Automatic annotation (TrEMBL):
Domain of life of the native organism: Bacteria
InterPro entries, sorted: Iojap/RsfS/C7orf30, NT_sf
Biological process terms in GO annotation: cytosolic ribosome assembly; negative regulation of ribosome biogenesis; negative regulation of translation
Keywords, ordered alphabetically: Cytoplasm, Repressor, Translation regulation
NCBIfam families in alphabetical order: rsfS_iojap_ybeB (TIGR00090)
Organism, as annotated: Syntrophus gentianae
Function: Functions as a ribosomal silencing factor. Interacts with ribosomal protein uL14 (rplN), blocking formation of intersubunit bridge B8. Prevents association of the 30S and 50S ribosomal subunits and the formation of functional ribosomes, thus repressing translation.
Pfam families registered for this protein in UniProt: RsfS
Protein name, entry field: Ribosomal silencing factor RsfS
GO annotation, cellular component aspect: cytoplasm
Family label: Belongs to the Iojap/RsfS family.
GO molecular function: ribosomal large subunit binding
Subunit structure: Interacts with ribosomal protein uL14 (rplN).
Subcellular location: Cytoplasm
Length: 118
């Protein structure tokens, strides 16, 4: 649901990091970016709306008003939505370089259309 909500808003460079073997606080990081603060906010809104329709609410939301780096905490999944230059600066993927990952092509329209499993 999260990935499809992100793809719906045309996010860029979507990657899913499987951190459950080395993290005590979550199982997955979902990281993506947008080209503007408005797109970053729209992506976050899309994720929250889709999850809410399924009765799932975030434990926490950070950075929503600024739209530079929005974090949505869904316990087992933490979503990081960056404005492109902010993502480049923090480079979270480098910090978790040794974990299994799935990179979703920018042209993907939904996760079910992908055959690459984790």
């Amino acid at each position: 649901m999260i990935v499809n909500a992100i793809l719906e808003k045309k996010a860029g460079r979507l990657v899913i990091l499987n951190v459950k073997e080395i993290s005590a606080f979550t199982d997955y990081f979902v990281i993506c970016d947008g080209t503007s603060d408005r797109q970053v906010q729209a992506i976050a809104g899309s994720v929250q709306e889709r999850m809410k329709k399924s009765g799932i609410h975030p434990l926490g939301v950070e950075g929503e008003s600024a739209g530079k780096w929005i974090l949505l905490d869904y316990a087992d999944v933490i979503v990081h939505i960056f404005h492109q230059p902010v993502r480049e600066f923090y480079d979270l993927e480098r910090l978790w370089d040794d974990v299994p990952r799935m990179e979703i092509p920018d042209e993907a329209t939904e996760l079910n259309s992908l055959s690459n499993g984790m």
